[in-house]
TrEMBL record:
Keywords: Isomerase, Isoprene biosynthesis, Magnesium, Manganese, Metal-binding, NADP, Oxidoreductase. Residues 6-133 form the 1-deoxy-D-xylulose 5-phosphate reductoisomerase N-terminal domain. This is 1-deoxy-D-xylulose 5-phosphate reductoisomerase. Its EC number is 1.1.1.267. GO terms for molecular function: 1-deoxy-D-xylulose-5-phosphate reductoisomerase activity; isomerase activity; manganese ion binding; NADPH binding. Its cofactor is Mg(2+); Mn(2+). SUPFAM superfamilies: 1-deoxy-D-xylulose-5-phosphate reductoisomerase, C-terminal domain, Glyceraldehyde-3-phosphate dehydrogenase-like, C-terminal domain, NAD(P)-binding Rossmann-fold domains.
Length: 393
C-alpha cells in the first residue's frame, strides 16, 4: 500500500495526542507522510510532535504564537504558520486521511475545506455535525469524500452497522457515564465548581468535554450528532446512563436483536479504528476481563438532572441552524462557568434563553444552510449568550 499522507487538526489536544501516539506506534515518520499538524497555544508540544513525525508544516491557530512556534522549530525542516488562513491552507494540502480534533465550532471550517478535496475525514469534532450536519454530509458526497466517526459512541454505532441496512434499525442507544455529578443530590448541583466538574469518573479527556459530560451537554451534542450522521429519526435515538462506560452504544434492529459495542474507555480504540479502517490492526487498549467486571449497570438519563438532554430533543426537532445556535450558546455558557461568572446549573438556563430568543423569528429553521450562515448564527448566539450571562452574573 502507498504511504498515506496524514494531517491532524488539534494535534496537541487529548484526541490529537492519542492520534500521534497511534501513528508513532504504527511506524511514525517511517510509515506515514505527515503533511500538517495544528495546535493552539501549546506550541512547544506542537513543535515536538512535528519534529518527531517529520511533518511538512506546523500551524498554530493563534497569530500571536507564531514567533514562539518558529523559534521552537528552529533548525528543523518543518515549516511554521499561524492563523485561520494558515489552517485553511493546511486543509488544502493534499492528504489521504485528516483527523479533525480541534475543540469547538472552530473545528468546522478546516474540516469542511478538507472534504472539498475528497479527503477521508476522521471526525472527532462533534461540533461540526451539530452545527452544520447536512452541509458537511452534502459536501462530502459532492466531492466523493468519506467521513469516519471518531466519537466513541458513533464509532461503536458505525461498527455495529457494518453489513447492515440502516432501514433495519429500530433504535440507537448511546450510553453516558453520567459524569462527575451523577450521584450528587440535585440541590447541590447549583454550587458545583469548575474543578469538581473537570474530573471524569472513567474517561481522560480535554477539560471542556469533561465539564460537558458532567452537564450532559456532551451527550446532548452526541444525540444530535447521531441524528445527523446516521440520518435516523430523533424518536429512535435514546441515551441511557451506564456508569461503567464499557458499552459505548447499542443498535437495536427491527427483529428485536440488539448489538452492543463493548470496550475499555480508551479513545485509542475509536481513533485506531478510523485510522486503519476498513482493516483492523492491533491496538494498545486494555483487554476486558468480563468475569472480573462481573456486572454492567444502567439507569434512565433523567432530564431533570440533565436539562441539556431535553434541549437536544428540541434542537433535533427544529433542525436547520438551531444546532449552530445551541452549540455556540453552550460554548459561551461553558466559558462563563469556567470563568466563575455563572453557576453550573445556569449553563442550561443560558442555552435555553438563547434558543428562545433566536427562535422568535424563523431565521434558524428557514434559512438555507451555508457555512457563512452557520458562522453568522454562531456569532449571534454568542452575543445573546453574553447578554444572558450578564443578566445572571
Ligand atoms: P482538547 O481541549 O484536549 O484539545 C483541543 C485541540 O484544539 C488542541 O490542539 C488545542 O490547541 C486546539 N484548539 C483549541 N482552541 C482552538 C481554536 N480556537 N482554533 C484552533 N485550534 C484550537 O480537546 P479534546 O481533544 O478533548 O477534544 C477535541 C474534539 O474531539 C472536541 O470536539 C471533542 O468534543 C471531541 N471528542 C473528544 C473526546 C476525548 O476523549 N477527548 C472524545 C470524543 C470526542 P492547544 O491545546 O495547543 O491550545
Ligand atoms: Mg463520546
Amino acid at each position: 500500500m502507498a504511504r498515506r499522507r496524514i494531517t491532524i487538526f488539534g494535534a496537541t489536544g487529548s484526541i490529537g495526542e492519542n492520534t500521534v501516539d497511534l501513528l508513532t506506534r504504527q511506524g511514525g515518520a517511517d510509515a506515514y507522510d505527515v503533511v500538517a499538524l495544528s495546535g493552539g497555544r501549546n506550541v512547544a508540544r506542537l513543535a515536538e510532535q512535528a519534529r518527531a513525525l517529520k511533518a511538512d508544516l506546523a500551524v498554530t491557530a493563534y497569530p500571536e504564537c507564531y514567533d514562539d512556534l518558529k523559534a521552537a522549530l528552529a533548525g528543523s525542516s518543518v515549516e511554521a504558520a499561524a492563523g485561520t488562513d494558515a489552517l485553511a491552507e493546511a486543509a488544502d494540502r493534499p492528504a489521504d486521511w485528516i483527523m479533525s480534533a480541534i475543540v469547538g465550532a472552530a473545528g468546522l471550517p478546516p474540516g469542511m475545506r478538507a472534504l472539498k478535496h475528497g479527503t477521508t475525514l476522521a471526525l472527532a469534532n462533534k461540533e461540526s455535525l451539530v452545527t452544520a450536519g447536512p452541509l458537511l454530509l452534502a459536501t462530502a458526497k459532492a466531492h466523493g469524500a468519506r467521513i469516519l466517526p471518531v466519537d466513541s459512541e458513533h464509532s461503536a454505532i458505525f461498527q455495529a452497522l457494518v453489513g447492515e441496512e440502516i432501514d433495519a434499525v429500530e433504535r440507537i442507544i448511546i450510553t453516558a457515564s453520567g459524569g462527575a455529578f451523577r450521584d450528587w443530590p440535585l440541590d447541590a448541583l447549583a454550587n458545583a465548581t469548575p474543578e469538581q466538574a473537570s474530573s471524569h469518573p472513567n474517561w481522560d479527556m480535554g477539560q471542556r468535554i469533561t465539564v460537558d459530560s458532567a452537564s450532559m451537554f456532551n451527550k446532548a451534542l452526541e444525540l444530535i450528532e447521531t441524528k445527523e450522521y446516521f440520518g435516523v429519526d430523533p424518536a429512535r435515538i435514546e441515551a441511557v446512563v451506564h456508569p461503567e462506560s464499557l458499552i459505548h452504544a447499542l443498535v437495536g434492529f427491527r427483529d428485536g436483536a440488539i448489538m452492543a459495542h463493548v470496550g475499555p474507555p480508551d479513545m485509542r480504540h475509536a481513533i485506531g479504528y478510523a485510522l486503519n479502517w476498513p482493516d483492523r490492526r492491533d491496538l494498545p487498549v486494555a483487554r476486558l476481563d468480563l468475569a472480573q467486571i462481573g456486572q454492567l449497570n444502567f439507569r434512565p438519563a433523567c432530564e431533570k438532572r440533565w436539562p441539556a438532554l431535553r434541549l437536544a430533543r428540541e434542537v433535533m426537532q427544529a433542525g436547520g441552524l438551531t444546532g449552530a445556535a445551541f452549540n455556540a450558546a453552550k460554548e459561551a455558557a461553558l466559558d462563563a462557568f469556567l470563568a466563575r461568572r455563572i453557576g453550573f446549573t445556569q449553563m442550561a438556563e443560558v442555552v435555553e434563553d438563547v434558543l428562545g430568543r433566536l427562535s422568535r423569528d424563523s431565521t434558524l429553521t428557514k434559512s438555507p444552510l451555508s457555512l457563512e450562515k452557520v458562522l453568522e448564527v454562531d456569532h449571534l448566539a454568542r452575543e445573546a449568550a453574553a447578554e444572558a450571562v450578564s443578566a445572571l452574573a
